[in-house]
Amino acid sequence: MSADGSSHDAFAHDRLIEAVALRRDREAFAELFSYFAPRLKAWLIKSGATPAAAEDFAQDAMLTVWRKADLFDGRKARAATWIFTIARNRRLDMLRRDARPLPTPEIDLADEEVRRPDDILAMSEDAERVRDALSRLKPDQVEVLRLAFFMESPHSEIARQLDLPLGTVKSRIRNAMIKLRLILEPSEEASR
Amino acid sequence: MNPNRNPSEDRLLAYAAGNLSPPEAVVVAAHLAMRPANDAWVRRLQAVGGAFLDEAAPSSLSQDALARALARIETDAGEVKVPAPLNDMPELPEPLRRYALGPWRWVGPGVRVRDVHAPRDGDCRVILLKIEPGRETPRHTHGGVELTCVLSGAYATETERFDVGDFEEADNDVLHQPRVVSDTPCLCVVALNGQIQLDGWLGRLMQPFVRL
Predict the structure, then answer these.
(1) Interface test with B, best of A35, A109, A170 (most B CBs within 10 A)
(2) Contact list, B69 vs chain A (CB under 8 Å)
(3) Where are the domains of chain B?
(4) Of A13, A131, A152, B20, which residue is 20 to 30 A from B156 by alpha carbon distance?
(5) Average pLDDT for chain B
(6) CA of A176: which chain B residue's CA is closest?
């Protein structure tokens, strides 16, 4: 794996987080930082943050990775999903802080790894299935989904960015979600 | 699973991505705590988010970014985070237990509300709504979207019945008059957007007195 290139060993990042958890391994953390911080920054820039704010966000999210590494469980979520969730919670917290007029207690509302310890889903296998599912969507469906993840108030902004009518964006997202369900949850879909 | 009593796919996607406003996220979190299938789906969507993060084209960081990060973890004393105390309603699902609650207020015959002190988002806020059996809320329309999750009991609208864990999205076109159809009071958590407009002569009489 190169410092910021793509990872070829799917579990390499999982092992780095485990090294941070077990040994407070600073080299492992540096490697995780070099890989994920530039991607977190890119995400925030896409969602409308300034480069400086996006970099601060990436710094803070990675500090949370350092602090919470012992909560990481590779059987439940792979490294990228776990770090995505940490960043997503952080972003929600940020929205909260900006929005709240009164001081309210700090709450880990979305601290999923604590909230549902008995989750028995084989999430590692899931990550592969998710990748496979994405590869079976049409490229324009993957594109709107990606934008839906990385932009706030997605629909209108996606429409503007892709220069498409709002209705087209909405139906494209809807079709992408239907297809994702069909691929990932064929049995549940039948009963929905 | 009836799609009408579940959050829309858009709503679940926005929740997974962290794009919902905080009050809306609170109601969806309560629903997910009671609907494992939707919860599992949201986790899958987060794996989609993870895949997108993994393949994102990286932005370059400032020169000293790594050095700063390493300096921070050197001096980091961990997170000082005292969990908020539990509130006085053990019957609430776990995601709602640590929000402070306001006092119960009377807003009509058999209808009481109390504020959930979750962060607001502009005009959007979270309340608990408790309605006695056989009672209905005053007929009303919405200034914006209203998200509701049933925590106990059941209610019915003109077209549909909502039981424990069910989720309703009512937009501003819907003239809404839920009626409790369970033998016990119906308790709901609601994200309200905009002002509620009460309808009918009684509603118009009450409007000045009722702050929902």
Answers:
(1) A109
(2) 29-30, 33, 37, 59, 62-63
(3) 1-212
(4) B20
(5) 86
(6) B9
Residue of B nearest to A149 (CA): B17
Paired strand residues for B130: B112, B187
Residue A39 with chain B: CB contacts under 8 Å: 53-54, 56, 58-59
- Say yes or no: A80 and A17 in one domain: yes
Q: What are phi and psi of B88, to 5 degrees?
A: -90, 15
Return the pLDDT at A175: 94
**Considering the domain boundaries, does residue A123 fall inside one?**
no
CATH superfamily, region B1-212: Jelly Rolls (2.60.120.10)
Q: Which residue spans within chain B are E strands per DSSP?
A: 105-108, 111-121, 124-131, 140-142, 146-152, 155-156, 161-162, 167-170, 179-180, 186-192, 196-198
Tally of domains within chain A: 2
ipTM: 0.82
Determine, yes or no, domain membership for A127.
no
Which residue stretches of A105-191 are H helix? 112-115, 123-136, 139-150, 154-162, 166-184, 186-191
Q: Judged by CB atoms within 8 Å, which residues 50-69 of A form the interface with B?
A: 51, 54-55, 58-59, 62-63, 66-67
Query: How far does A62 lie from chain B, in Å, by closest CA?
Result: 8
Domain containing A182 equals: 137-186
- Judging contacts by C-beta atoms under 8 Å, the chain A residues touching residue B3 are 192
Same domain, A103 and A142: no
Mean pLDDT over A161-180 rounds to 93
Same-domain status, A165 and A110 = no
Last residue of a domain, one of A84, A117, A150: A117
Same domain? For A96 and A176 the reply is no
Q: State pLDDT tens for residues A97-135.
A: 554 433 333 344 444 444 443 344 445 557 788 889 999
B interface mutation test: which of A4, A43, A81, A131 has the most B CBs within 10 A? A81
Location of structure tokens 């009303």: B140
> Has residue A67 been placed in a domain?
yes
Residues B189 and B30 sit within 8 Å (Cβ to Cβ): yes
In whole angstroms, give the CA distance from residue A172 to residue A165: 11
